[in-house]
Amino acid sequence: MSDTFRAAYASEFYKLSKNKEIVVLLLIPVALTIFVAGYLYYDVSQNPVGEIDGSINPWQGMFGKDVFQFFYLLYPILVAIFVHACCDIEYKNNNYKVLFTLPISKHKIFIAKVLFIFITVLLSVSLSYFAFLLCGYLLGVVLPEIGFQNYDFRSVSFFVFLKLYVALAAISSIQLCLSLQFKNFIYPIGLGMFLLVFSTIVWQKDFSDFIPYTGSFKSYLNMLSENTRFERLDYLNLCSVLVFLVGSFYLFKRKIYD
User: Fold this and answer.
1) Distance separating the N- and C-terminal Cα atoms of the chain
2) Any transmembrane segments, and where (predicted)?
3) How many C-beta neighbours within 10 Å does residue 121 have?
4) In sequence order, which residues have a C-beta less than 8 Å from that of residue 9 and are 6 or more positions away?
5) What is the widest separation between alpha-carbon atoms in the chain?
6) Confidence of residue 12 (pLDDT cuts 50, 70, 90)
7) Closest Cα to residue 175, out of 89, 76, 106?
8) Domain ranges in the chain?
9) Chain-centre distance for alpha carbon 136
């Protein structure tokens, strides 16, 4: 890593780490996971043991189902808000023109910003994954009658969260493109929410695999079916990352003329 790129990344990290949206992105999914685990403990403790269906894998049919019902709607919105915040900080005081006067190439500044976004989203998903496992293990200790301790769900949950991250990386790239095109936050976030709802409605259609936001809803279905295979949607999401990053870089370079 060259000194100029390290300086660019350090500058982006210092500048963007002050955004409160980062704390929200990192902590809300973790807090939500803990809340669902707490509610599950309360709900089960209020019911006689005989009412619990022992044939259900609690990681999938009880805990995972409830957590991902929130995740597939919440995560894309949080990512959209976070990515726009990373762009909005440059709109203030016309910082884009200031950036391009620095003795650092545009592509290094852009890559530093993209890396910061992807690493932050990865950290958020990783924290959620570890919170999911930890809460499940604790539920297995305090409520052994449910049967969390009878299943090794680490591999399945790892791939479900990995596929979720791939979808969020593609969504981040799209939202970066939209946020660079539109200064007003209503447009990128509004379009992101529309695509999220639309993809949830048409997820059974073949063309839905070409909408990266479908990956968010599919993560919920992956949890329910314990699907760990990478499918066409996941590979298309990886391609979407490259395509929309190219578009984002083009829009980023044009900011000097705005």
Assistant:
1) 31
2) 21-42, 67-89, 110-139, 159-178, 185-203, 235-252
3) 22
4) 112, 115, 116
5) 70
6) low
7) 76
8) 3-257
9) 21
- 175 in Cβ contact with 80 (< 8 Å): yes
Q: Distances in Å between the alpha carbon of 256 and those of 27, 101, 114, 217?
A: 35, 10, 18, 37
Q: Give how far the C-alpha of residue 7 lies from the chain's centroid of Cα atoms, to the nearest Å.
A: 27
Please report which confidence band the pLDDT of residue 151 belongs to, taking 50, 70 and 90 as the band edges: confident
Task: Please name which of 164, 133, 172 lies closest in space to residue 230, comparing C-alpha atoms.
Answer: 164
Report the alpha-carbon distance of residue 235 to residue 206 in Å, rounded: 14
- Residues above pLDDT 70, as percent of the chain: 83
Sign of the alpha-carbon torsion through 253, 254, 257, 258: negative
* pLDDT for residue 212: 94
Q: How confident is the model at residue 233 (pLDDT cuts 50, 70, 90)?
A: very high
Retrieve residue 145's tokens: 């009658």
If residue 34 lies in a helix (H) or strand (E), which one and from where to where? helix 20-45
Q: Which two tokens stand for residue 56?
A: 């259900």
Tokens of 194: 């529309």
SS3 per residue for 96-132? HHHHCCCCCCHHHHHHHHHHHHHHHHHHHHHHHHHHH
Tell me if 226 sits within 8 A of 60, measured CB to CB: yes
* pLDDT score of 54: 56
Predicted TM-score (pTM) of the model is 0.89
Give the pLDDT confidence of 19-58 residue by residue, as tens digits.
666 777 778 999 999 999 999 888 888 775 554 555 678 8
